């Protein structure tokens, strides 16, 4: 809820690039990142923003089966996972079973999969209407799935295959929103990338005996998730008046008519583009926002990599995480 | 309850110790004391029902909780947001246990203070205050169910414009003489006792406005220059920094903290190390001023 | 002791894969697509409004093998408790029919359909004059009868819903036209069919209001370079203008 005069104050402030907390239009708030505080999970990461946003992502790795009919490339528009509890990668426009533009590529028979869910804990939902929360969580889950569960999502899904055609690793990524302070989607992606960097998959050795294939999981030896560095980060831009800002506070989100989320990866390519909100955006402004997002994304990625490197050093030294203290 | 009672002196000598108690802890076994807010009697002993500090005023013992929802008192200045427009009244979110109530008969209507409320006013309630509007008001009375009844019958209360809201824990704001402060940097601050603080550009009120139909309830902001916007942002961040370090908030503290942070960029004030430095400097300055 | 009277089947059974002879590998040729189109050509589209008598407004759209029907009810009283006194609301429902695609879909809405419902709402809200119908709601129901490319289905659903809204006499700023595109390396190909969609490297769905020159919704997946995306956006905007022209003709014909 916001008053007419507050909306006007914020809109004019954005126009002059002096936001209510003193930031310029394209300034991000400080981000705190910590990994590995949930020991039961295969990987975890918590991201907190200055204004109160708090997101925790946990990754659990389990052995799953590749569906015998999962390779069908012609019926790409509906891929239902009969075995698993959730539809892995419901697929947005297009499909998650892209065989890559180079023809060949990896068929679904030889890949693992990632299944993402975003949930809002009750502590964060005082601000939201429960019904809106559900559709927001669904929207974010779908976006995460679409980005990560494709051949271009960064993570090397072929490396997650244990026995081609039969068994694979399934990475269950669960994001939990603990507190809401604006800028949720970007925080969720940042925490997901951090959690994937932190995830360790037990090594699986495959043996072929008498035409039967058996595999053994060794808990002691673990591997990192191949391709985590190529997982993209998102930049969400909110349109307020005729300008756009990044990393909005809750009040600024109430003033914005539309939001454009762009996922950018290390190579500078766009991995996803999604518009949210109930207003329209002019095509030329849209193109401009895409370009801005690409540059900002690169900055965010380098900041993220620095933070993750510091985390890796801390873990190597055996220092305990601060966790929730 | 095997713990020792806290030693109390009956003849009014305040001990300088701060006694923190938890729910269920015995405060005193002496039946000469009267029980106040936050305590209950069990047999002949006085037991705490809140976690907080024991506050003794002569023979009345009450517990002041460390952090609680705002509990209003008559005469308090509060800042609130309209949540609902109902028949002849508005519901106001005051960060308290219940929404406050602003009756149509408690507001100033355009056309003079003495005007009777007629039917057209009821239908036009949204032209005065609509959902989402911010206002400052005073607590007039309490309904039986504990909801506060507010009024804006003075020219200094009413709809808020030209600024932004800062939310802090209500316990950090103490009752002082005036809650409408103009800082030397040219910014108006309204310290609502319920924890809502309105920081805005200073706009002098002229008494003739009480009679003009549009002046009271219009939604247009004054033009605000970039410089003024920055100062408002700086004051907001300063207040948030003070709140983060659990420092109480009044006009002098805000001024000290503002000066301490003047060398930093506005957006840096909220960074943990910088905010700590600012608050510590302000505290030191405050204590120094106390001693003189 | 095993039960000799019964022959137990396998524990897990799966629908058989029908091999219809050897299928030639699909090679995408930008100069000559399988249905003979150019990369910049949309499938010829047929639109008709007023097909569902019970509804306040309805429309049917067919493009190639794709068939989408939409019904609009409203404006009618909003039954929900928390409603705004100043503007109305839009309730969108998107559903694939169980027989619409290669694999049978269940009657329960899965996550993809819920997301598409949200996309429908976001794409149509900027166009509908909700401020003129406070406390009321407009319910939009889209049913995909046969799908041929899920991105194309979403685009068709948005277009069809706009037509139905216009047929229902609900005031709008403009009719929203939507189109889809697929990325094949650096080539952008408009309106991909289901077959082409399986081999693409990414896809884009864009909804646009030509009179106001505003994009109401955009959603893209797959990895692309910024330049390719910008090019695709321009192409889609032009295509949407073409679709809009067809929509206008269809509406005038049906009045």
Automatic annotation (TrEMBL), chain A:
One CC-aspect GO term: nucleolus
Disordered, as annotated region: 69-110
Domain Exoribonuclease phosphorolytic stretches: 27-68, 109-202, 230-295
Residue ranges, compositional bias (Acidic residues): 69-82
InterPro entries: ExoRNase_PH_dom1, ExoRNase_PH_dom2, ExoRNase_PH_dom2_sf, Exosome_comp_Rrp42_subfam, PNPase/RNase_PH_dom_sf, Ribosomal_Su5_D2-typ_SF
Main location: cytoplasm
Keywords recorded for this protein, A-Z: Cytoplasm, Exosome
Localization per record: Cytoplasm; Nucleus, Nucleolus
GO molecular function, a single term: mRNA 3'-UTR AU-rich region binding
Keyword Calcium: no
Biological processes, Gene Ontology terms: exonucleolytic trimming to generate mature 3'-end of 5.8S rRNA from tricistronic rRNA transcript (SSU-rRNA, 5.8S rRNA, LSU-rRNA); nuclear mRNA surveillance; nuclear polyadenylation-dependent rRNA catabolic process; rRNA catabolic process; TRAMP-dependent tRNA surveillance pathway; U1 snRNA 3'-end processing; U4 snRNA 3'-end processing; U5 snRNA 3'-end processing
Domain of life according to the entry: Eukaryota
Family the UniProt entry places it in: Belongs to the RNase PH family.
Protein's name in the database: Ribosomal RNA-processing protein 42
Species: Geranomyces variabilis
TrEMBL record, chain B:
Subcellular location field: Cytoplasm; Nucleus, Nucleolus
UniProt entry keywords in alphabetical sequence: Cytoplasm, Exosome, Nucleus, Phosphoprotein, RNA-binding, rRNA processing
Matching Gene3D superfamilies: 2.40.50.100, Nucleic acid-binding proteins (2.40.50.140)
Pfam families: ECR1_N, KH_6, S1_RRP4
Major localization listed first in the record, in broad terms: cytoplasm
Gene Ontology molecular function terms on file: RNA binding
Residues covered by the S1 motif domain: 73-153
Cellular-component GO terms for this entry: cytoplasmic exosome (RNase complex); nuclear exosome (RNase complex); nucleolus
Any Gene Ontology biological process: poly(A)-dependent snoRNA 3'-end processing
InterPro entries in the record: Exosome_cplx_N_dom, Exosome_RNA_bind1/RRP40/RRP4, KH_dom_type_1, KH_dom_type_1_sf, NA-bd_OB-fold, S1_domain, S1_RRP4
Family: Belongs to the RRP4 family.
Quaternary organization: Component of the RNA exosome core complex (Exo-9), composed of EXOSC1, EXOSC2, EXOSC3, EXOSC4, EXOSC5, EXOSC6, EXOSC7, EXOSC8 and EXOSC9; within the complex interacts with EXOSC4 and EXOSC7. The catalytically inactive RNA exosome core complex (Exo-9) associates with the catalytic subunit EXOSC10/RRP6. Exo-9 may associate with DIS3 to form the nucleolar exosome complex, or DIS3L to form the cytoplasmic exosome complex. Exo-9 is formed by a hexameric base ring consisting of the heterodimers EXOSC4-EXOSC9, EXOSC5-EXOSC8 and EXOSC6-EXOSC7, and a cap ring consisting of EXOSC1, EXOSC2 and EXOSC3.
The name this protein goes by in its record: Exosome complex component RRP4
Species name: Geranomyces variabilis
UniProtKB/TrEMBL annotation, chain C:
Superkingdom of the source species: Eukaryota
Localization, UniProt: Cytoplasm; Nucleus, Nucleolus
Domain Exoribonuclease phosphorolytic span(s) in chain numbering: 42-171, 174-235
SUPFAM superfamilies assigned: Ribonuclease PH domain 2-like, Ribosomal protein S5 domain 2-like
Cellular-component GO terms for this entry: cytoplasmic exosome (RNase complex); nuclear exosome (RNase complex); nucleolus
Swiss-Prot/TrEMBL keywords: Cytoplasm, Exosome, Nucleus, RNA-binding, rRNA processing
Main location: cytoplasm
GO MF annotations, alphabetized: RNA binding
One example of a Gene Ontology biological process annotation: U4 snRNA 3'-end processing
Residue ranges that the Swiss-Prot or TrEMBL entry lists as coiled coil: none
Family statement drawn from the similarity comment of this UniProt entry: Belongs to the RNase PH family.
Known function: Non-catalytic component of the RNA exosome complex which has 3'->5' exoribonuclease activity and participates in a multitude of cellular RNA processing and degradation events.
Assembly information from the UniProt record: Component of the RNA exosome complex.
Protein name (database record): Uncharacterized protein
Lineage, uppermost ranks: Eukaryota, Fungi, Fungi incertae sedis, Chytridiomycota, Chytridiomycota incertae sedis
């Amino acid at each position: 809820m916001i008053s007419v005069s507050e909306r006007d104050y914020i809109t004019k402030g954005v126009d002059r690039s002096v936001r209510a907390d003193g930031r310029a239009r394209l300034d991000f708030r400080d981000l705190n990142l910590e990994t590995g505080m949930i020991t039961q999970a295969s990987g975890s990461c918590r991201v907190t923003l200055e204004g109160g946003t708090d997101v925790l992502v946990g990754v659990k790795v389990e052995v799953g089966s590749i569906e015998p009919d999962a390779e069908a490339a012609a019926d790409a528009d509906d891929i239902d996972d009969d075995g698993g509890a959730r539809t892995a990668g419901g697929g947005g426009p297009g499909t998650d079973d892209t065989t890559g533009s180079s023809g060949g590529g990896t068929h679904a028979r030889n890949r693992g999969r990632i299944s993402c869910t975003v949930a809002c804990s009750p502590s964060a939902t005082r601000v939201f209407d429960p019904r809106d929360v559900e559709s927001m969580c669904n929207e974010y889950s779908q976006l995460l799935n679409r980005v990560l569960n494709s051949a271009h999502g960064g993570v090397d899904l072929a490396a997650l295959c244990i026995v081609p055609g039969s068994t694979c690793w399934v990475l269950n990524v669960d994001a939990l929103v603990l507190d809401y302070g604006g800028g949720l989607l970007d925080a969720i992606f940042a925490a997901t990338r951090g959690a994937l960097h932190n995830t360790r998959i037990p090594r699986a050795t495959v043996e072929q005996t008498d035409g039967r294939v058996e595999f053994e999981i060794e808990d002691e030896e673990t591997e990192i998730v191949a391709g985590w560095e190529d997982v993209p980060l998102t930049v969400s831009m909110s349109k307020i008046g005729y300008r756009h800002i990044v990393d909005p506070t809750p009040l600024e989100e109430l003033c914005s008519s539309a939001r454009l989320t762009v996922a950018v990866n290390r190579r500078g390519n766009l991995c996803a583009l999604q518009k949210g909100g109930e207003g329209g955006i002019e095509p030329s402004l849209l193109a401009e926002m895409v370009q801005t997002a690409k540059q900002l994304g690169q900055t965010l990625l380098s900041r993220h990599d620095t933070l993750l490197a510091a985390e890796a050093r801390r873990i190597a030294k055996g220092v305990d995480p601060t966790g929730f203290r | 309850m095997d713990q020792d009672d806290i030693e109390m002196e009956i003849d009014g000598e305040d001990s300088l110790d701060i006694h923190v108690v938890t729910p269920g802890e015995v405060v005193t076994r002496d039946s000469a004391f009267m029980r106040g807010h936050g305590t209950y009697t069990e047999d002949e002993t006085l037991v705490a029902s809140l976690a907080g500090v024991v506050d003794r005023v002569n023979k009345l013992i009450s517990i002041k909780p460390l952090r609680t929802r705002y509990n209003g008192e008559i005469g308090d200045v509060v800042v609130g947001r309209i949540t609902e427009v109902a028949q002849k009244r508005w519901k106001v979110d005051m960060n308290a246990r219940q929404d406050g109530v602003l009756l149509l008969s408690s507001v100033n209507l355009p056309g003079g203070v003495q005007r009777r409320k007629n039917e057209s006013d009821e239908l036009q309630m949204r032209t005065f205050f609509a959902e989402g509007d911010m206002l400052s008001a005073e607590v007039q009375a309490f309904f039986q169910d504990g909801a506060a009844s507010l009024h804006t019958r003075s020219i200094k209360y009413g709809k808020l414009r030209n600024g932004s809201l800062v939310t802090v824990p209500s316990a950090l704001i103490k009752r002082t003489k005036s809650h409408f402060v103009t800082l030397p940097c040219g910014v108006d601050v309204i310290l609502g006792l319920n924890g809502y603080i309105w920081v805005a550009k200073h706009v002098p009120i002229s008494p003739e406005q009480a009679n003009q139909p549009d002046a009271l309830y219009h939604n247009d902001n004054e033009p605000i220059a970039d410089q003024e916007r920055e100062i408002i942002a700086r004051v907001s961040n300063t207040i948030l920094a003070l709140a983060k370090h659990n420092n109480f908030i009044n006009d002098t503290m805000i001024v000290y903290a503002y000066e301490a942070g003047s060398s930093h960029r506005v957006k840096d004030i909220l960074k943990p190390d910088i905010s700590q430095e600012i608050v510590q400097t302000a505290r030191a300055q405050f204590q120094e001023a106390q001693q003189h | 002791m095993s039960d000799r009277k019964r022959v137990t089947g396998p524990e897990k059974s799966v629908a058989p894969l029908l091999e219809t002879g050897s299928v030639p590998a699909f090679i995408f040729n930008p100069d000559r697509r399988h249905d003979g189109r150019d990369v910049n050509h949309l499938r010829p589209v047929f639109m008709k409004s007023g097909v569902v008598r019970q509804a306040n407004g309805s429309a049917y759209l067919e493009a190639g093998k794709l068939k989408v029907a939409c019904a609009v009810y409203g404006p009618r009283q909003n039954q929900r408790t928390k409603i705004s006194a100043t503007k109305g609301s839009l309730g969108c429902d998107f559903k694939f029919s169980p027989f619409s695609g290669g694999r049978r879909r269940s009657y329960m809405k899965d996550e993809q359909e819920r997301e598409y419902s949200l996309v429908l709402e976001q794409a149509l809200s900027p166009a509908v004059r909700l401020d003129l119908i406070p406390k009321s709601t407009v319910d939009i129901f889209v049913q995909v009868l046969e799908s041929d490319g899920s991105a194309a289905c979403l685009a068709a659903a948005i277009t069809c819903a706009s037509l139905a809204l216009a047929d229902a006499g609900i005031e709008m700023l403009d009719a929203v036209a939507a189109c889809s595109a697929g990325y094949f390396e650096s080539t952008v190909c408009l309106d991909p069919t289901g077959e082409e969609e399986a081999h693409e490297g990414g896809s884009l769905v864009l909804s646009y209001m030509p009179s106001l020159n505003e994009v109401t919704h955009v959603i893209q997946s797959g990895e692309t370079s910024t330049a390719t995306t910008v090019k695709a956006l321009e192409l889609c905007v032009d295509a949407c203008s073409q679709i809009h022209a067809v929509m206008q003709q269809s509406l005038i014909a049906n009045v």
